[in-house]
Amino acid sequence: WVHPRGTNGGAIISRMVEQDADSGFASDSEGYSVHLKGGRLHVYLTKRWLDDALRIETETTLAPDRWQHVTVTYDGSRLAAGVKVFVNGQPQKTRVLLDELNQTFQNKQPLRVGAGGGPANRFHGLISDARVYGRTLTAEEAGVVAAAESLTELAALPAPQRTARQLAKLRTAFLESHGPEPLRAAHRGHAALQRQRDALVESFPTTMVMEEMPQP
To answer: How many beta carbons lie within 10 A of that of residue 76, not counting itself?
Structure first.
């Protein structure tokens, strides 16, 4: 949850090499960051600037001076298409600024909330309930985490008044914790199969093709 003060909020979350620059965002630092710039959400995944990095930005701006939920997911594909941004559970249209990521951007930097890229990029505003998940959230799950109400509050709401996000949160809680055991077991099995599929796809070898031959 973010409550930006103005439109140039700075770094929301990052794990990147810090720089001592006094102005501008250190976009060439190795690592990753999500930050607010000109009201738009920017996502940077960088190994080496400028030929081994990925950058996208949202087309619409984030409203200042009010609480909003931001979720960013990345599927490990090293492609800009593998990065998704959600605001209040809704998918956002994005512009690709750079799509040249080839290597891992892992580093030994600490995870920073409200900071990253040097002192000039501290976040201007408030941040609450920052989370990092060990897998890629689905679009439905991005809506679930954006539902701020507790399960008790949602259960008290008349069904016709519940939003899609609220319904998804109740459904997820039922499947994970409160449904009949056979249903919960099927839900766990489905999640396990999804993880196996992702691991299989990630294990496929890739090769760079500079130019196709006339005769394959």
So the answer is: 12
Structure confidence at residue 27 as a pLDDT band (50, 70, 90): low
Are 97 and 57 in contact by the 8 Å Cβ rule? The answer is yes
Q: Which amino acid is at 163?
A: T
* Residue 169: its H or E element: helix 164-173
Sign of CA dihedral 24, 120, 33, 37: negative
Contact 165, 143 (CB under 8 A): yes
Location of structure tokens 């950058």: 55
In sign, the C-alpha dihedral spanning 101, 106, 108, 113 is positive
Amino acid occupying residue 134: G
- Could you read off the pLDDT of 129-186 as tens digits, one per residue? 999 998 899 999 999 999 989 999 999 999 999 998 899 999 999 999 999 999 999 9
